[in-house]
Give the backbone structure.
Amino acid sequence: MNARDRKLAELVLYVADRCATDRRFGATKLNKILFFSDFIHYGLHGDSITGAAYQRLDFGPAPRRLLPVRDELIDERHLAIDHSDYFGRPQKRPVALRDADLSDFSGREIDTVNKVIKMFETADATAISEASHRLAGWQIAENGDTIP
């Protein structure tokens, strides 16, 4: 894993582990937790947690490098995807197969992530996506564009 993607990869594992008992947790909710964590942290402290660029997609923002990072985590057997059914809809549920290495994160960064997870713990993918659609950055970007 290159250094640029390391924090994103470790945060994916951390969020997947923290949300392991959340029946509503799947790929969409992961994307939004990562997005809100980075953007809220940037708003409060002037820097993002992962440094990832986010793109506008139909269902809301997602890290531009998420799929290659996710695929590498799967290839290295650090992450699995559980394909399940959530109220008649397919759900791709990320499952951490090892603990995240948080040595590159500050306590303040992990605190932000924990607060975002708590804020959306009862939200399903639809609700958290709708929340992301209300943000100006998502609204002004075109599909596939990087969110400012």
The chain has six helices and four strands. Residues 36 and 80 are 23 Å apart (CA to CA). The first strand starts at residue 54 and ends at 57.
